[in-house]
Design a protein that fits this description.
The longest helix is centred in the C-terminal third of the chain and has 22 residues. The radius of gyration is 21 Å and the shape is globular. Helices cover about 35% and strands about 15% of the residues. Helix 11 packs across helix 12. The chain has 2 domains: about 180 residues, NAD(P)-binding Rossmann-like Domain (Rossmann fold); about 170 residues, NAD(P)-binding Rossmann-like Domain (Rossmann fold, 3-Layer(aba) Sandwich), CATH 3.40.50. It is built from 15 helices and 15 strands. Strand 7, helix 7 and strand 8 form a beta-alpha-beta unit. The protein has about 375 residues and is α/β, with parallel strands linked by helices.
Length: about 375
């Protein structure tokens, strides 16, 4: 199979779909890999490293799309990239379609087969291709929140861990999944007072067992959110509904209850955000202020640490990329029900139920679409 790796063009996005070690695995299996020049520059990988792994270097994005049967990326294709997609293409990348009607429309119109990292599952029902970036984003959320709390960045001027004789900041983490767990690790490690909210008693028991008296676990409800947000210095939103828009758990009215200069970090922004006042920002302009509350809503948070993120992502995606290349997209998905869960759009049909529901498309089950 001919596999294309374009250079990412989203604002301050330096990750790359395949690293040289992944390219080598694919070329050793007889596949042709075409990498756009300087695609790995942001993570310190040179064109010569890709050539040594067996790749062919192409200069322009259009050349990559022209020659490739499968496109492997990191972030969702931007408008100019979507215009290059054709029915013959398989796109393998993060998509996050539910809050993005324009992207969904363009992918439907392209006729391409579009497989989303974030909805591929594993035998336990987890999301193995989302997990590494959720780990990175969860840890980054505390770094970003601590930075936002600094007075120069609009915050209240509170040091996350405090100092002897001065209380640390209170960190409220909504959602006990991968994001929440990793955020908790960082916040506890920095000495903050931490409260974790989740609707699963099993999850809360896990947090309690791991962190013991170093945090407070709370069953999540509207009342609990309202009660704890009043004293929070930093609120992390890490709630995920796979493939669908995130629920709005913190409303505009909640902001009036918070201390001025407190910070909201919305890690769910790729799925529309879990704060009512959230809208996507970029690494170039990461924050804005609403009613005195600093909002950090960068849609590609792991892009801030692209080298770590890229290698972590490749560790997870490579087995699936190999299966798609070895067998072809259709057979690979028919052979693996977990990869099949990643199919979001195929030949003009929306195959992921959450996306179809949120954006008003007819839902065509993935197996039915592949048989069409």
């Amino acid at each position: 199979m001919k596999i294309g790796v374009p250079k990412e063009i989203k604002n301050h996005e330096y990750r790359v779909g395949l690293v040289p070690a992944s390219v080598r695995e694919l070329t050793m299996r007889g596949h042709d890999v075409f990498v756009q020049s300087r695609a790995g520059e942001g993570i310190g990988v040179l064109d010569s490293d890709y050539v040594a792994a067996g790749a062919v270097i192409l200069q322009e994005t259009a050349e990559v799309f022209d020659v490739a049967e499968m496109i492997v990326k990191v972030k969702e294709p931007q408008a100019q990239e979507r215009a290059m997609l054709e029915e013959r293409h398989t796109l393998f990348t993060y998509l996050h379609l539910a809050p993005d009607p324009e992207q969904t429309r363009d992918l439907v119109n392209s006729g391409a087969t579009c497989i989303a990292y974030e909805t591929v599952t594993d035998p336990s029902g987890q999301l193995p291709l989302l997990a590494p970036m959720s780990e990175v984003a969860g840890r980054l959320s505390i770094q970003a929140g601590a930075w936002c709390l600094e007075k120069a960045h609009g915050g209240s001027g509170v040091l996350l861990g405090g100092v002897p004789g001065v209380a640390p900041a209170k960190v409220m983490i909504i959602g006990g999944g991968t994001v929440g767990f990793n955020a908790c690790q960082m916040a506890v490690g920095m000495g903050a007072r931490v409260v974790v909210l989740d609707r699963s008693i099993r999850v809360l028991r896990h947090f309690d067992a791991v962190f013991s008296a170093r945090l407070e676990t709370v069953f999540s409800s509207a009342d609990a959110i309202e009660r704890h947000i009043t004293g929070a210095d930093l609120v992390i939103g890490g709630v995920l509904v796979p493939g669908a828009a995130a629920p709005k758990l913190v409303t505009r009215e909640h902001l009036a209850l918070m201390k001025r200069g407190s910070v909201l970090v919305d890690v769910a922004i790729d799925q529309g955000g879990c704060f009512e006042t959230s809208h996507a920002t970029t690494h170039a302009e990461p924050t804005y202020i609403v009613d005195g509350i600093v909002h950090y809503c960068v849609a590609n948070m792991p892009g801030a640490v692209p080298r770590t993120s890229t290698f972590a992502l490749n560790n997870a995606t490579l087995p699936f990329a190999i299966a798609l290349a070895d067998k072809g997209a259709k057979q690979a998905m028919l052979d693996d029900p977990h990869l099949l869960q990643g199919l979001n759009v195929h030949r003009g049909m929306v195959t992921y139920e959450g996306v179809a529901r949120d954006l008003g498309y007819e839902h065509v089950p993935a197996l039915e679409a592949l048989e069409d």
